[in-house]
Amino acid sequence: MVNHAPRCETRAVAGNKTNMEQAPTQALTDALCKVAEDRDKRAFAQLFEYFAPKIKRFGIKQFANEALAMELVQETLTTVWRKAHLYHPDKGAATTWVYTVMRNASFDALRKMKSNKEEHISEEIWPLFQEEQSTDSDFQDHLQSKQIQDHISKLPPAQQEVVKGVYFQEMSQEQLAEHLSIPVGTVKSRLRLALQKLRAEIGDSND
Amino acid sequence: MIKHHPTEQLLTQFSQGELPATLSIAVSAHLELCECCRAKVESLEKRHAEQLFTLPSNDIEEDDFADLFAQITSNDEIDIPKPSEPKTLEYQNKTVSLPRAIANMQRGNFVQLGKLARSRLQLDDGELRASLLQIGAGGEIPHHTHTGFELTLLLDGEFSDESGSYVPGDFIWLDGRHHHSPATQSGCLCFTVVNSALHFNKGLSKLLNPIGNLIY
């Protein structure tokens, strides 16, 4: 098993400022990467401690209501915990990413207050996971998908099966679990391991 | 080249999540087509984040968030986003891909009115209404004023009016001060957001006023 250096730590945060300003931002970015790669609870605790009170303060300004502000804290930090793997340090600092997660949660909450509908359209307006924009040529796309296919074929068969089911045959995780006669939790954990591996591999070879 | 962009103010409100949903969708779709506005929004987001999260402030209360922390981390699963397939629309014997934010909203069927066809987004957004609008080759909308505002994002094809001609990606904001009669030679597809009916100004087209609502 190759030991991959975490791809995040070697990178500087985009948009350098003075050292004083950069220090906490870099530490937060490193913590977010650890959550993404290792599900590191201590790193998440560091993020949580830093952001929770600040998000709450923003929520109180936004909604003039403490309970709704707490919901915003919960919604935002749950997303940070569950979607940290979508964060890419080369696209900006962790603070900016957490801001966009909070902005999206706040947008959906405000719409819910107005129209009383439970929707999450913020994800369509501001996708957290942005494929490369179409300025890349098709050539590049083909190369990249060939490369991804190669990496997928190196995964353990059980993980390959899950990745192919979800990404190429577009089955839901529930459908796939039924199809393979395994619990949904197993599908999820296999997928998680597979994606971690793919990210590490593809990230490394792009460096 | 795209010549018409959202104002700085609109981009700022967009980046803070303060625009209504239909307008946010329009700006998001413009960003997919316009690299320079995309970069502006990224730098605005960075600035808001710095203001809220990295500037020192004294009014932070210390709360006990321990329960919430335990609750969130008790579940170790991660969320995998649905891979988003580019969605396309067939119109006037062409296939065009729709910007993600527009493509992923519920829409009604296209309703045909002469050379115009409109499909309205089924999205509750107060008095704002958003639609996809096709104008067939040689089609035009009679000379009109807007009692509120009209935002047009050209997605495909071309059209022109008294102020000039437009290319895909152009984000054209008009209000009561503007009169225009847009026309297209080869046909076009637009995304529009309006907050009130059009007002037709000339001759027989005044008869259209009762159906101004239908067009957009």
UniProtKB/TrEMBL annotation, chain B:
SUPFAM superfamilies: RmlC-like cupins
Organism: Pseudoalteromonas byunsanensis
InterPro entries (alphabetical): Anti-sigma_ChrR, Anti_sigma_zinc_sf, ChrR-like_cupin_dom, RmlC-like_jellyroll, RmlC_Cupin_sf
Record's protein name: Transcriptional regulator
Gene3D superfamilies (alphabetical): Anti-sigma factor, zinc-finger domain, Jelly Rolls
Higher taxonomy: Bacteria, Pseudomonadati, Pseudomonadota, Gammaproteobacteria, Alteromonadales
Coiled-coil zones: none
Origin: domain of life: Bacteria
Endpoints of the signal sequence: none
Domain ChrR-like cupin: 130-193
NCBIfam families attached to this UniProt entry: anti_sig_ChrR (TIGR02451)
